[in-house]
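#struct-help
A.M.: can someone run this one for me? Single chain, 142 residues.
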Amino acid sequence: MSLVAGLALLDFRGVRMDEPAPGGFVSPALATLALVVHHRTLGTATNPEAWRTPASLIARLGARKVRPALSDAIARIRQAGHPPIATAADLAAGAPDGQGLAIALLARPSVSDLRRALRHLTAPAFSADGNPITHTEQELSS
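D.P.: on it. Structure tokens below:
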């Protein structure tokens, strides 16, 4: 975790990263956690209170308790109206180290990456009247 302290001192403004190669791989566990940590980028949800980031999430990852952190993240995504496809056990089986996940969550994903993660990791969400919930670019940019 001392690496995190050192990275926090660096100024990354203006740094550009190359686009990943087509078909690039991101850990489904990381994508699930990123949905919870960086949820505000997605705009409105069916239950905004469910998206509140748990204070213990990063601490659990730092203590290498990946499965409990993923269980909490999945529960929050479900409460927000987006039923997850995978279980915490499924995600934890192929997950990177908890400390590595915690460090990776420092990077802010793009709106398109979060929308892609939501689309690939959850079943379609529906409002109370049965209509699919979609986010427009206008909602996401505000």
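A.M.: thanks! The CA atoms of residues 16 and 94 lie 29 Å apart.
D.P.: also worth noting: The chain has a mean pLDDT of 76.
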